[in-house]
């Protein structure tokens, strides 16, 4: 059951031969008495009736007492061997444990021609079958069967009447017309879909723009522009402009805002120091923004200068009053 000795490249140590089959050990096992055998060989030996002894020394041996020798198996599997098909011409030399992988693709494996039964190498099978008379005869027979089937089908087809043909042509014409109609409807639907997509994108852009331009709730935006009627409205107007300093929201009217700024200035600019800083902050914020036209900015600049002059005059009066008090 072991490996043929002539497979191996070079000489083989006699200690690696099975004592039963006299071949190189395959799946080597060791008996308690120290002898090595192929597992299949010792199994066959011990399966005989009333046989419980070693083939070499006749010591008592059972199948349960033999042990595999892994080191010996690995040693033998690492030996180089020639292909089992070397007698048929294969020159490949590989390790023993790779033989089975090689045989899956070896071109020198014996195969039988399906036409004549000749034993040929696998790589020669195609060229052999090209000239094989048995293959040619079987192919002709298959062609005859196929031709007969086609003739039968042809006879069945030609048995259709002219009325059947007209009916089929009518159905075909109807289907073609329906197909054209569906294609036209599809084109119309695609065109409408493109229009809807454009409108959807436009609406989405407008929505995003409107969201970006919504006033901050903390600005206390007054859609009626009633700034300047109360002191608190001065701060609200300043905050509204400051929150959108470089980009005026489109829903805010420039003229109405400027009128509100002017109203705040006219009403509170000279009401004493109580609102002086609020008015100054409002005018300065409005002047720093890009909300207003050049003419309006010119007026805002005038307001700032007027506030500064009024502040200087007030400070001078306070200084003079203090001097008189000291004197």
UniProtKB/TrEMBL annotation:
Keywords: Coiled coil, Metal-binding, Zinc, Zinc-finger. Residues 18-58 form the RING-type domain. Gene3D superfamilies: Zinc/RING finger domain, C3HC4 (zinc finger). It comes from the Eukaryota. PROSITE patterns: ZF_RING_1 (PS00518), ZF_RING_2 (PS50089). GO terms for molecular function: zinc ion binding. InterPro entries: Znf_C3HC4_RING-type, Znf_RING, Znf_RING/FYVE/PHD, Znf_RING_CS. Residues 165-213 form a coiled coil. GO terms for biological process: regulation of canonical NF-kappaB signal transduction. PANTHER family: RECEPTOR-ASSOCIATED FACTOR, PUTATIVE-RELATED, TNF RECEPTOR ASSOCIATED FACTOR. This is RING-type domain-containing protein.
């Amino acid at each position: 059951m072991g490996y043929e000795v002539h497979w191996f490249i070079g000489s083989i140590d006699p200690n690696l031969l099975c004592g039963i089959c006299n071949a190189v050990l395959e799946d080597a096992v060791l008996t308690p008495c120290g002898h090595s055998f192929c597992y299949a060989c010792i199994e066959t030996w011990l399966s005989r009736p009333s046989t419980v002894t070693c083939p070499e020394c006749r010591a008592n041996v059972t199948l349960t007492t033999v042990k595999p020798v892994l080191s010996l198996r690995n040693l033998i599997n690492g030996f180089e061997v020639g292909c089992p098909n070397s007698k048929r011409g294969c020159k490949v030399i590989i390790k023993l444990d790779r033989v089975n992988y090689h045989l899956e693709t070896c071109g020198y494996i014996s195969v039988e021609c399906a036409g004549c039964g000749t034993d040929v190498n696998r790589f020669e099978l195609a060229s052999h079958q090209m000239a094989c008379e048995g293959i040619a005869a079987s192919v002709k027979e298959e062609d005859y069967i196929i031709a007969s089937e086609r003739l039968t089908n042809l006879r069945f087809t030609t048995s259709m009447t002219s009325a059947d043909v007209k009916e089929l042509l009518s159905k075909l014409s109807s289907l073609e017309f329906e197909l054209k109609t569906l294609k036209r409807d599809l084109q119309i639907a695609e065109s409408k879909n493109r229009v809807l997509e454009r409108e959807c994108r436009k609406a989405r852009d407008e929505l995003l723009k409107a969201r970006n331009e919504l006033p901050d709730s903390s600005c206390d935006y007054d859609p009626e522009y009633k700034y300047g009627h109360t002191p608190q409205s001065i701060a609200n107007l300043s905050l509204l402009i400051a929150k959108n300093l470089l980009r005026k929201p489109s829903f805010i009217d420039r003229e109405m805002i400027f009128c509100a700024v002017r109203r705040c200035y006219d009403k509170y600019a000279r009401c004493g120091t109580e609102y002086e800083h609020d008015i100054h902050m409002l005018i300065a914020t409005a002047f720093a923004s890009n909300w207003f036209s050049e003419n309006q900015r010119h007026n805002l600049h005038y307001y700032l200068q007027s506030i500064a002059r009024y502040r200087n005059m007030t400070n001078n009066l306070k200084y003079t009053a203090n001097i008189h008090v000291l004197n």
